Amino acid sequence: MNYSISKRSITTSKEIDAPARPIRKGRVGLIVAGSMFSGLVVALVLVVGPFGGAQEHVIMGTALLGWALGWALLAVLSMRWSDQPQRWAVVPAALMALAGASLLLFRPDANGMNLLGWIWPLALIALAVWMTVQARRNLRSLARRLVLYPLFAGLVVAGVGGGYETVQEQIDRSATAMPGQMVDVGGHRLYMHCTGSGSPTVVLVSGLAETSVYWGGWIAPAVARNTTVCAYDRAGQGWSDPPASPQDGVAVVTDLHTLLDRAQIPGPYVLVGHSTGGAYIRVFAARYPDQVAGMVFLDSQPNEAFTGLPDFPSQYSTIRRASALFPSLARLGVFRLANQFAPDPLPIPTRDEERAVISTANLNRIQRDEFAELPMTLTEAAALTTLGDRPLIVVTAVKGAQAGWLPLQDRMTGLSSNSAHRVLADTDHPGLIHDGVGAAQASQAILDVVASVRSGTPLTKS
User: Fold this and answer.
1) Which long-range CB contacts under 8 A does 263-266 form with residues at least 24 apart?
2) Are 438 and 424 spatial neighbours (Cβ–Cβ below 8 Å)?
3) pLDDT for 104-138, tens place per residue?
4) Residue 261 vs residues 125, 228, 390: alpha-carbon distances, Å
5) How far apart are CA 428 and CA 400, in angstroms?
6) Alpha-carbon gap, residue 286 to 271, rounded angstroms
């Protein structure tokens, strides 16, 4: 009996004296790859899911928070489940979380984002270099070369691209002559450039993601030989100051009406709208009918786009979300690089100016905002029900047109008893402005409306 007790006591003593079994550590490489992949997935899900289509500061802020989560996971999981704790990952997690939260909290406008463009590229490059040093010191895994080094290289490339884009935009604005004038319309200034002489004055209104620049290639010079023609930049486009908030059609045409008045451009006007510019001039005509002498729709966006074009609702939903990513991509220089290789038949130097201006973050920011406001703009454009007998020419580009486009274009001729519909079978939507042949047809339509206004005679139907 005593022996049995003693034996049990000895056994218990050995168990107590034995070292505790170590916690089994996982492979740090899997933690690195899993954390970075998680950060990427969360960032993508946020910007295309619940925050899809949001304004630039929201897209950037939520993306940074997603990436911050990835770095935080690396720090926490590596300290808990590996024998190679990556405590340095707390730094990028904290910095990205702070930057993302600040964007969401302070909601910087276009000018604020442009100012940040002088700061964040250098900060990003410095952070990438510092993280490279830390990973080299603290991580002994193939994941360092396969996952982290490529990621750090990508951050450096993004910083270099962002810095180049910021500097190049400043160079473009400094080096490019501004032939027109800036006019204060109340809270911000708009740019307008008028050429030619005579009346009625033709006012050119561009489509989404375009500025006054592309009119200067073929159309404005052709029209200016016969009458006064004015092209302008909506708020946030080209030379014009950005608006305080996204603008619907009423806000856009209120700006235009004020611009024409303060620039002392006498009306009534022949309004020409390309693409969504056609919707804007319909809003103008509905609100200021006495200021309209005639109109030209150049492949104009119809009021019934969401109901009369079978493919448009799904296309709009996709582009609506994608366009929200464009300002951020533009700040990285992505569009400037891509546009260098995009073919464009506009004459030089208009082509180069066009490529530069459509590459900017400001223009892509306004494109997102105008696209978000498009349903409201089309509703407002439907307020125009008649032009009476004022001349109207509808020019339709058939090449590449979506199903239902041609009938809706034809319906727009019903706005006037003095109208004509010209269908161009071999011209596509941008070709009406960019291509010399299509632009010649567009210019002739404008001149025909000008002639009808001057003479008071009806348009020919051909």
Assistant:
1) 263/181, 263/183, 263/192, 263/194, 265/192, 265/194, 265/201, 265/203, 265/228, 265/230, 266/199, 266/201
2) yes
3) 999 999 999 999 999 999 999 999 999 999 999 99
4) 48, 16, 22
5) 6
6) 12
Which tokens in the block code for residue 452? 């009808």
Residue 340: what pLDDT? 87
Q: CB of 108 within 8 A of CB of 69?
A: no
Reported as type and span, the H/E element at residue 392 is strand 392-397
Q: How far apart are CA 293 and CA 289, in angstroms?
A: 9
Q: Give the closest residue to 352 by CA, choosing from 335, 340, 337.
A: 340
CA angle centred on 281, ends 276 and 287, rounded to 5° = 135
pLDDT digits 0-9 by tens, 24-45 = 456 899 999 999 999 999 999 9
**What's this model's pTM, rounded to 2 decimal places?**
0.90
For the segment 5-25, the average pLDDT, to the nearest whole number, is 42
Q: 15-46: string of b/e by CB count within 10 Å (b at 16+)?
A: eeeeeeeeeeeeebbebbbbbbebbeebbeeb
3-state SS, residue 271 = strand
State the Cα torsion 154-156-158-162 to the nearest 10°.
-170
Burial of 369 (0-12, 13-18, 19+ CB in 10 A): buried
Q: Cβ distance 145 to 103 under 8 Å?
A: no
Q: What is the DSSP letter of 87?
A: G
For the cut 50, the answer to whether the pLDDT of residue 225 exceeds it is yes
Instruction: Classify strands 269-274 and 201-205 as parallel, antiparallel or unpaired.
Output: parallel
What SS3 state is found at 404? coil
Q: What is the pLDDT of residue 26?
A: 60
Share of the chain above pLDDT 90, in %: 90
User: CA-to-CA distance for 266 and 6, rounded, in angstroms?
Assistant: 114
List beta partners, residue 181. Answer: 192
Q: Which residue has the tokens 């964007």?
A: 103
| Cβ partners under 8 Å of residue 370, min gap 6 | 208, 234, 246, 247, 276, 377
